[in-house]
């Protein structure tokens, strides 16, 4: 007996409701999204002809010095750091502040990325307590240099006396913080950039910047498969090399932390949480390495460092604001980072 027509229509409707979109809709959607993705990515992460992400250079490169001819001299409460809690480059500066004990010498203002405007903006509480100038968003870089045409980035080292940007290159700001405010630092004895280790520190910094610090972005922002494969290979080759080196040394340049460790730490802290998934750096997690995982915990447990780490802001800023990489804006609930407080034994393993 044949089934009633109404029943067959019901089954057909149910099947249609569960089916995938038509081939035409899929092809059209892929074309539109791919085109828009490349347009947005070209603005977010300018590529070269091979689709490789090329990070623009910072343009404010002044220093602070006690030299009589210096425009910027070290003083308490004169300078302010503008940082984003999710930004690894800005995070370097707050880690250095904590290690040196400069929290009462240099003020810190927190900015957050605006997903709709594409700029960094001051939190409302921060904006309310700001003295002039009202840097309510960092697109106002040209307040101090009208000809400025570069990106508005963090960190910024700001001079409240002259109302100018001193420096916006994180690698140079942490050198300044390490050396120029020792008379005010509570941990002035710690030298993160000692003369006798500078050659070794600089070599590590050069390798780590290209392959790791910027390498994760070269993976995540790659616009061709070839560019991604190149960046990913260089990233994990470098991580393997670092892991091997840490098998015979507590830190990168010996038994005491240096600026090379500071620069590596802020990337490692974000790796398993963000870069592993969102940036497709998923060959291996940092915690799966024999030495890198314990090394990350060792740095995290240094006095004051954990207080500079805000994992929820990291997830919000990456997953919630990088629309081309995460169009839905869904922020993952994990992972649990309580393992960073587990004992490492590295202090005992490498006693001098």
TrEMBL record:
<feature type="active site" description="Nucleophile">
    <location>
        <position position="87"/>
    </location>
</feature>
<dbReference type="InterPro" id="IPR047047">
    <property type="entry name" value="GST_Omega-like_C"/>
</dbReference>
<dbReference type="GO" id="GO:0005737">
    <property type="term" value="C:cytoplasm"/>
</dbReference>
<dbReference type="Pfam" id="PF13409">
    <property type="entry name" value="GST_N_2"/>
</dbReference>
<dbReference type="InterPro" id="IPR004045">
    <property type="entry name" value="Glutathione_S-Trfase_N"/>
</dbReference>
<dbReference type="InterPro" id="IPR040079">
    <property type="entry name" value="Glutathione_S-Trfase"/>
</dbReference>
<feature type="domain" description="GST C-terminal">
    <location>
        <begin position="194"/>
        <end position="318"/>
    </location>
</feature>
<dbReference type="InterPro" id="IPR016639">
    <property type="entry name" value="GST_Omega/GSH"/>
</dbReference>
<dbReference type="InterPro" id="IPR036282">
    <property type="entry name" value="Glutathione-S-Trfase_C_sf"/>
</dbReference>
<feature type="site" description="Lowers pKa of active site Cys">
    <location>
        <position position="275"/>
    </location>
</feature>
<dbReference type="GO" id="GO:0004364">
    <property type="term" value="F:glutathione transferase activity"/>
</dbReference>
<feature type="active site" description="Proton donor/acceptor">
    <location>
        <position position="217"/>
    </location>
</feature>
<feature type="binding site">
    <location>
        <position position="120"/>
    </location>
    <ligand>
        <name>glutathione</name>
    </ligand>
</feature>
<dbReference type="Pfam" id="PF13410">
    <property type="entry name" value="GST_C_2"/>
</dbReference>
<feature type="binding site">
    <location>
        <begin position="151"/>
        <end position="154"/>
    </location>
    <ligand>
        <name>glutathione</name>
    </ligand>
</feature>
<dbReference type="InterPro" id="IPR036249">
    <property type="entry name" value="Thioredoxin-like_sf"/>
</dbReference>
<protein>
    <submittedName>
        <fullName>Glutathione-dependent reductase</fullName>
    </submittedName>
</protein>
<feature type="binding site">
    <location>
        <begin position="169"/>
        <end position="170"/>
    </location>
    <ligand>
        <name>glutathione</name>
    </ligand>
</feature>
<feature type="site" description="Lowers pKa of active site Cys">
    <location>
        <position position="318"/>
    </location>
</feature>
<dbReference type="InterPro" id="IPR010987">
    <property type="entry name" value="Glutathione-S-Trfase_C-like"/>
</dbReference>
């Amino acid at each position: 007996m044949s089934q009633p027509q109404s029943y067959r229509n019901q089954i057909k409707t149910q099947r249609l409701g569960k089916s995938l979109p038509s081939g035409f809709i899929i092809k059209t959607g892929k074309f539109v999204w791919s085109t828009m993705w490349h347009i947005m990515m070209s603005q977010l992460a300018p590529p070269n002809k091979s689709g490789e992400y090329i990070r623009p250079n910072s343009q404010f490169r002044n220093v602070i010095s006690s030299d009589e001819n210096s425009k910027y001299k070290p003083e308490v409460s004169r300078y302010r750091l503008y940082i984003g809690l999710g930004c690894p480059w800005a995070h370097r500066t707050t880690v250095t502040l904590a290690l040196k004990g400069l929290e009462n010498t240099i003020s810190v203002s927190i900015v957050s990325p605006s997903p709709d405007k594409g700029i960094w903006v001051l939190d409302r509480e921060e904006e309310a307590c700001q003295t002039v100038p009202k840097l309510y968003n960092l697109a106002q870089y040209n307040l101090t240099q009208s000809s400025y045409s570069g990106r508005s980035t963090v960190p910024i080292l700001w001079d409240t006396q002259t109302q100018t940007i001193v420096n916006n290159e994180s690698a140079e700001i942490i050198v300044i913080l390490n050396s120029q405010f020792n008379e005010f630092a509570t941990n002035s004895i710690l030298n993160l950039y000692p003369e006798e280790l500078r050659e070794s520190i600089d070599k590590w910094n050069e390798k780590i910047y290209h392959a790791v610090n910027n390498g994760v972005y070269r993976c995540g922002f790659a616009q061709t498969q070839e560019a991604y494969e190149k960046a990913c290979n260089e990233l994990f080759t470098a991580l393997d090399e670092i892991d091997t080196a840490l098998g015979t040394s507590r830190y990168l340049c010996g038994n005491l932390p240096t600026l090379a460790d500071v620069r590596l730490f802020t990337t490692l802290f974000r790796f398993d949480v963000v870069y592993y998934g969102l940036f497709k750096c998923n060959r291996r997690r940092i915690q799966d390495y024999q030495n890198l995982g314990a090394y990350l915990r060792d740095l995290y447990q240094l006095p004051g460092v954990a207080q500079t780490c805000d994992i929820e802001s990291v997830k919000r800023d990456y997953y919630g604001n990088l629309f081309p990489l995460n169009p839905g804006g869904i922020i993952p609930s994990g992972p649990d980072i309580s393992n960073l407080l587990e004992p490492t034994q590295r202090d005992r393993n490498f006693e001098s």
